[in-house]
């Protein structure tokens, strides 16, 4: 899952929520930073 962070309001927006315009849906700011996908390790307790 690709996520972006708005540099102005610091909210995280998913790529699917952006649609085809790269603009923050919360504050309409145009500069978004692509976040690195987190590597989630699943550790199973035995
Ligand atoms: Zn914003």
Model description:
This protein has 46 residues and is mainly β. The chain has one domain (3-35). It is 9% helix and 24% strand. The protein has one helix at 15-18, and strands spanning 3-6, 12-14, 32-35. The chain has a 3-stranded antiparallel sheet. Strand 1 and strand 2 (12-14) form a beta hairpin. The longest helix has 4 residues, at 15-18. The radius of gyration is 14 Å and the shape is elongated. It starts with a strand and ends in an 11-residue tail after the last strand. The relative contact order is 0.32. The model has no long low-confidence stretch (mean pLDDT 87). The structure holds zinc ion (ZN). The site of zinc ion has 8 residues, from loops.
């Amino acid at each position: 899952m690709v996520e972006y962070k708005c540099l102005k309001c610091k909210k995280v927006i998913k790529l699917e929520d952006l649609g085809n315009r790269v603009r923050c849906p919360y504050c309409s700011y145009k500069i978004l930073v692509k976040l690195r996908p987190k590597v989630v390790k699943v550790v199973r307790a035995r």
